[in-house]
Design a protein that fits this description.
Order of helices and strands: EEEHEEEEEHEEEEEEHEEEHHEHHEEH
Shape: globular
Number of strands: 20
Low-confidence stretches: 1-5, 8-27, 29-34, 109-113, 395-403, 412-429
Distance between the termini: 30 Å
Radius of gyration: 23 Å
Mean pLDDT: 81
Oligomer: single chain
Strand content: 15-25%
Structural class: alpha+beta
Length: about 425
């Protein structure tokens, strides 16, 4: 797929962000294949920078190339002056397929011999980088439209992080990006941003201890469960999950998207649960003080039950019969073999686990059925919160995760479960 066209904010005046007035500047030079030389000039920098990011899923494998899915200028990248530019990119990083791994490539890219995860990048651009932003530096491109300028992780820059919130406050379309907002959501202006540094598979910015924006780094076609499920649960009146206030998404690429035409969820803004404590820390504190954890565990069970009952009301359920049960058992066996290949310590348990999966398949052949629904498939104590107000629960995601299409298998997630949110936590994503 050739480089995508470059979108400029000036094309959509209704969505222009107030209070950020850059000096006049010429637009970045573009060609039919996109910004002239943009990706070629950034590729050497990204090849070094991406593997160092905690949210990069391809660690341990060389990057063999990049392709540009979209490039959108949220704030013009001036060649002079002190006003920073803000560039939004969706980039595919091409890497060798891991041995024995069935990879679902991102951005709708067709399957092939090479893995092709799609990453969301927010790049700040300045002629000179202030010392306070030095840790965010990605590098200075040689050639291309950003030649010689400092390119850096934009979320470290409060001015650019604030601009992103303003975009969410003012719904509209900017090139392939679409910003949406719940009509009833009140999002104040001038909330001070704070980037959370203890991140895993995503990036999160807290605004004024009022909202938290989770930015999905590895994206793929389809609505991310971190948006889909809170919206569905909010419609049932479930108060265990903060309802999304705003979100943004990208249109699918014009080429190479395959049969799917779903947009990519890029980020979700939700109320921030200030003063909350995650369940893992609560358990550790109870152990250290030799306190009884029974009451807290019971409250967690109640919250989990409430959320899953609400999911059953809000989302479709289905009946798993023999074909689905046999497929489920086979999929679990395949995942076990992949896990054991990566972790030899699992080998002593393989036979017993395979036998259990075969017993499950046998029950399906014997006519057993189960009602299935969407679930939280990898819930653990580190993903739930006790809030100051009412002891409510919350959720955050662990480690690099598959995209929406891989982790959603219809009701019950094809037995794998959904990593859709119970409630968003602020300390990791």
């Amino acid at each position: 797929m050739p480089e995508a066209s470059f979108s400029r904010g000036a094309q959509h005046p209704p969505t222009a962000v107030p209070r950020v007035e850059p000096p006049p500047s010429a637009p970045l030079a573009t060609t039919a294949a996109g910004p002239a030389g943009l990706l070629a000039s950034l590729a050497p920098l990204l090849a070094e920078w991406l593997p160092r990011q905690r949210w990069f899923a391809g660690k341990g494998r060389p990057i063999t190339g990049f392709s540009l899915v979209s490039a959108t200028e949220l704030l013009p990248c001036a060649a002079t002056g002190t006003t920073p530019g803000l560039l939004h990119l969706l980039v595919r990083a091409q890497q060798p397929e891991p041995a024995g791994h069935r990879h679902g490539s991102g951005c709708g890219h067709p399957r092939g011999a090479a893995a092709s995860d799609c990453y969301q990048l927010l790049l700040g651009v300045r002629p000179a980088l202030p010392p306070r932003l030095a840790p965010a530096l990605i590098g200075r491109p040689t050639g291309g439209p950003l030649d010689g300028r400092a390119v850096y992780e934009a979320l470290f820059d409060p001015r650019l992080a604030t601009l992103l919130l303003e975009r969410l406050r003012m719904p509209g379309t900017l090139g392939p990006l679409r910003f949406l907002r719940e009509p009833s959501a009140a999002i104040p202006q001038a909330l001070a941003p704070r980037l959370l540094t203890a991140e895993q598979s995503n990036s999160s910015v807290i605004y004024g201890d009022t909202f938290i924006l989770k930015l999905f780094r590895r994206v793929s076609p389809g609505t991310n469960p971190d948006l889909e499920l809170p919206l569905a649960l909010a419609r049932t009146g479930c108060t265990r999950v903060p309802a999304p206030a705003a979100w943004f998404e990208a249109a699918p690429p014009a080429e190479g998207a395959g049969p799917r035409s779903d947009p990519f969820t890029l980020g979700v803004l939700q109320p921030y649960l200030a003063g909350s404590t995650d369940g893992w820390q609560l358990a550790l504190d109870a152990l250290a003080a030799r306190d009884d954890f029974t009451e807290a565990a019971h409250a967690l069970g109640q919250a989990t039950a409430e959320v899953h009952l609400a999911m059953a009301r809000a989302l479709p359920t289905t009946v798993l019969r023999r074909p689905q049960i046999e497929h489920l058992a086979a999929a679990m066996s395949e995942r076990l073999d992949s896990a054991a290949a990566a972790v030899p310590a699992l080998h002593p348990y393989r036979a017993a686990l395979h036998a259990a999966y075969e017993d499950l398949a046998a029950l399906g052949r014997a006519g057993r059925t189960w009602t299935a629904q969407r679930i939280h498939g990898d819930l653990h104590l580190g993903q739930v919160l006790r809030t100051v107000q009412d002891g409510g629960s919350g959720e955050a995601g662990p480690g690099p995760l598959p995209g929406p299409g891989e982790r959603r298998g219809g009701p019950a997630g094809a037995g794998r479960g959904d990593r859709g949110p119970l409630v968003p936590q602020s300390t990791c994503g």
